[in-house]
Amino acid sequence: MSLQKLARELDETARQSAAMLEGITEALELLTDSTAGKDASVRQGMMMIVTALQGQDRIEQRCRNMALAARQFSLLPPTAPESVYDEIWQSLTLDELRVPALSGVAANQAHGEIELF
After folding, report:
1. Residues 58, 21 contacting (CB under 8 angstroms)
2. Alpha-carbon dihedral of residues 31, 16, 65, 52, nearest 10 degrees?
3. Which of 24, 33, 38, 63, CA to CA, is 20 to 30 A from 45?
4. Rounded Cα distance, 29 and 34, in Å
5. What are the residues whose beta carbons fall under 8 Å from the beta carbon of 52, sequence distance 6 or more?
């Protein structure tokens, strides 16, 4: 798979994820406007959904960052030094992609919360 194709697939993943978010947001707005939104358990459930949506937002951002990196990598000549690749990673906006020590750390933590990266 070429890096350009990988970037397109990551863009599509981000787009689909954002579309899912829109539907869930509409459902939350309906719950907020109804009398059901006044029930404590419904409010707690809504807050849990909001937290999950924040995780989704991080996933969307992560996909967009990886797509950008893949596009930049594809433009580099085969002889590009490793430092150029490192510079591209350093330019990304999310710490878990930019800082090697944070990459994939959510999979190694047992905290009972949604894994954001």
Report:
1. no
2. 30
3. 63
4. 9
5. 114
**pLDDT tens digits for 66-84?**
899 999 999 999 999 999 9
Q: How many CA atoms lie within 13 A of 10 on its CB side?
A: 20
> 47 is written with which tokens?
């807050």
Amino acid at 115: E
In eight-state DSSP terms, residue 105 is G
114: helix, coil or strand? coil
Residues in the chain: 117
Residue type, 15: R
What pTM, to 2 d.p., does this model score? 0.66
Task: Tell the residue number behind the tokens 């330019």, with chain if given.
Answer: 91
| Residue bearing tokens 């419904």 | 42
Coil vs helix vs strand at 107: helix
How many Cβ atoms from other residues are within 10 Å of residue 25's Cβ? 13
CA distance 94 to 74: 21
